[in-house]
Amino acid sequence: MSDLIRLVYASKATFCDQHIGARHQVVDQIIRDAQYQNRAHGITGVLCFDNGHFFQALEGEREAVEALYDNILEDSRHADVWLLWKRPVNQRLFDRWSMKYINVDAYIHRILERERLDQFEPHRFSDPLVEELLESIKISEARPETPLEAPVRWLSRQEAQSRWQPSFFLTGFAAMLALLIGLALAGFL
User: Fold this and answer.
1) Contact 3, 63 (CB under 8 A)
2) Where are the beta strands (DSSP E) in the chain?
3) pTM of this prediction exceeds 0.90
């Protein structure tokens, strides 16, 4: 019997006093290490970083995920690590991603603004907000995964907002197309 869990945590980066290029290198190294290690341990997930904060979801067998979380608690690059939730799940949301990196884009900022959060501060996220963000990340597979060889690049809020409309349109179009195909296959169309 599988003991599959999803663990979500928030933390503050300890390296934000470094210049932006060095910050990018640290986050890029975190992503590279996570992708390599997670593949080896059957862990999948997603990582968001903005405003000096990490928001990460980890999925896999309980023992492997809890061991990884224990390592994160000891990692000097993280401070104020808070467990937002840990739950058993029947299936993974992020089964395709050993560790997908997501820029906190205009779509996510709009969700935060609706919740009266003016900055990306995952320590303040409610359970429903955590769940909504995970679902919105899952359905936004049009966002490219950061390649291992590419450095992480953060978009400014203005850049993200200017890019939001096309990706939102394409995501909505893809969702509608998938729904129509599903209804046709089920015999409703």
Assistant:
1) yes
2) 4-13, 44-50, 53-61, 78-88, 100-103
3) no
Residue 126 in contact with residue 44, Cβ under 8 Å? no
| Cα–Cα distance, 34 to 163 (Å, whole number) | 27
Q: Are strands 4-13 and 44-50 parallel, antiparallel or unpaired?
A: unpaired
In whole angstroms, what is the distance from residue 56 CA to residue 67 CA?
Answer: 15
Helix (H) or strand (E) holding 158: helix 157-185
Q: Shortest CA distance to 94 belongs to which of 47, 62, 53?
A: 47
Token representation of residue 98:
């050993």
Residue 9 CA to residue 127 CA, distance in Å, equals 11
Residues in CB range of 126: below 8 A, 6 or more apart: 115
H/E element, 65: helix 62-74
What domains can be seen in the chain, in order of their start residue?
4-185 (3.30.70.100)
The per-residue pLDDT for range 108-165, each reduced to its tens digit, is 888 899 999 988 999 999 999 999 999 888 877 655 544 433 444 444 444 444 444 4
β-pair partners for 124: none
CA distance 118 to 141: 25
How far are the Cα atoms of 49, 62, 80, 89 from residue 53, in angstroms, in the given order? Answer: 6, 25, 10, 26
